[in-house]
Amino acid sequence: xxxxxxxxxxxxxxxxxxxxxxxxxxxxxxxxxxxxxxxxxxxxxxxxxxxxxxxxxxxxxxxxxxxxxxxxxxxxxxxxxxxxxxxxxxxxxxxxxxxxxxxxxxxxxxxxxxxxxxxxxxxxxxxxxxxxxxxxxxxxxxxxxxxxxxxxxxxxxxxxxxxxxxxxxxxxxxxxxxxxxxxxxxxxxxxxxxxxxxxxxxxxxxxxxxxxxxxxxxxxxxxxxxxxxxxxxxxxxxxxxxxxxxxxxxxxxxxxxxxxxxxxxxxxxxxxxxxxxxxxxxxxxxxxxxxxxxxxxxxxxxxxxxxxxxxxxxxxxxxxxxxxxxxxxxxxxxxxxxxxxxxxxxxxxxxxxxxxxxxxxxxxxxxxxxxxxxxxxxxxxxxxxxxxxxxxxxxxxxxxxxxxxxxxxxxxxxxxxxxxxxxxxxxxxxxxxxxxxxxxxxxxxxxxxxxxxxxxxxxxxxxxxxxxxxxxxxxxxxxx
Length: 480
What we know:
Radius of gyration: 25 Å
Shape: elongated
């Protein structure tokens, strides 16, 4: 009876010769897994290592050809943890034991990706799998980065060249650039030699474009200058004294910036008096308390007369932390020099949030940020530190981020870092021109990323429908 059931179920699977599925040899699986993880580590940990991502992705895509879909998921989960956890060791310092669970959650999308790609291999054959690979990759990356509660928008392939001349290619959008990398990697492990040759040539070309041509030095000219100082949880008197020192050190700076949560409340009067004295604008982090005791993590703009002229709450408070309520909406500040989007800390990581400012005509982004010294240098230098260059390259506008304990950054509109400050760098200053001569542009990849997410969802629905169909067939044959 069971033999008959198995034979009948074979009719539900594709039978064309091109769909023959040959699983990987067991000895290759862990070698490919190791190359995937090592490549990802080199790409994001070494300043000269971003091209390693173009070795990591083909190895990862090959792992979809394990024997069963269940094995694909578990291999993907293990590889995903190995890819991400070394970069996220600071989670332990931030979240305690829950950080270990977050490492597991970070690896989950890779498990889902290999599961879906394994089904594509076994059901649709190599041609459709080649077509679907960059779509599934981009759809899952966009979903995990932008669309669900535990959204996590770091360690994307499109961010890897943030500190190299190749950051300029992020003008197509971080998800679009990741799509191109995934397509080249899929071709490199394609079903025919000529396809693999095209893929290999594409990978080599993309690797070269990360490093050349080098950035040409262009002096940034602007009527507007900004200056900031790194201070972590200073008291009111210290803040007022250091702000006075910053204003004296940089008389050319019309806007002074301090970090997120410099104050656990509104801006105190002593600080306002310093701003009145020097007739500058101040952007500084504090909180707005609500009637129910909750609060908004807020960036305040104080005018030269010492009064509030604008404020913007944080849109995505950090999960599992007392970080306030999410902002109800976002508005740009119509400054005397042009429209400025003011984001708070990790809001810079989310394309959907930052796109909103650009749609409103933002000509520059200022980001007060709180990253504690105890979280370590790696988090801000190699992870969060990639976001400002990427956003500048995507939108074609400058960014200025002042972080409580390093590494503050000023970027020009091409994504080049033109000023930075050390870690932990307490009381260290950063300053430079802030060119608001151009309005930001949205990168062209946002529709592509959303479309890939929709297609990925449709493919999941297709697989579920096929699973239900097979289950009904099994029950029908068992009943005979």
